[in-house]
Amino acid sequence: MKKIFAISILFLIASCGALKNSPKDPYVGIFDFIIFEVDNFGDIPIKWTLLKEGENYTSQMEFSGDGTSPGEIEVNSTILEDEVFTIEAYTSGYDIYFELSVEEATISGSMMGMFNIKGTRIK
């Protein structure tokens, strides 16, 4: 009985140590951001989900507001370079791109280099 208890405690300690050593990616998460003052649409709220598969990042974006949205967003690529994500996407017949910087719980950047973006991490 003492051996089973001792082995159980040993496995518990070992498993906790293994979980503690697994690094968490600082970028992965779900974010809400707003693209400010887009022509013909005004401010556009977006929900951005950033995932990591192996060494590569993938994104999903969707419009999250109650107002008029331009259509669906199809993300083509997500590239991290110099701590800035460049995301190429397609929506409403246009190829667009985002440049986004993630700093802990905040996000900032631009769409097409013309429209400012600000937001926060929600998960």
SSE topology sketch:
Blueprint: H1 2-21, E1 29-38, E2 42-53, E3 56-63, E4 74-81, E5 84-91, E6 94-103, E7 106-111, E8 115-121
Antiparallel strand pairs: 1-2, 1-8, 2-3, 4-5, 5-6, 6-7, 7-8
At a glance:
The chain has one domain: Quinohemoprotein amine dehydrogenase alpha subunit, domain 2 (Lipocalin), CATH 2.40.128.
Classification by helices and strands:
alpha+beta
Query: Runs with pLDDT <50, length 5+?
Result: none
Mean pLDDT, nearest integer? 83
Beginning-to-end CA distance, first to last residue: 44 Å
- Percent of residues in helices: 10-25%
Strand content: over 45%
Number of domains: 1
The number of helical segments is 1
Task: Quickly name the level 1 CATH class.
Answer: Mainly Beta
* Strands side by side in the biggest sheet: 3-2-1-8-7-6-5-4
Gyration radius from CA atoms, angstroms: 20 Å
**What overall geometry do the principal axes of the alpha carbons give?**
elongated
- Which superfamily, in CATH terms, is the homologous superfamily? Quinohemoprotein amine dehydrogenase alpha subunit, domain 2
Biggest β-sheet: count, sense, barrel?
Answer: 8 strands, antiparallel
Oligomer: single chain
CATH architecture: Beta Barrel
At CATH level 3, the topology is: Lipocalin
Number of strand segments:
8
Can you write the helix and strand succession as a string? HEEEEEEEE
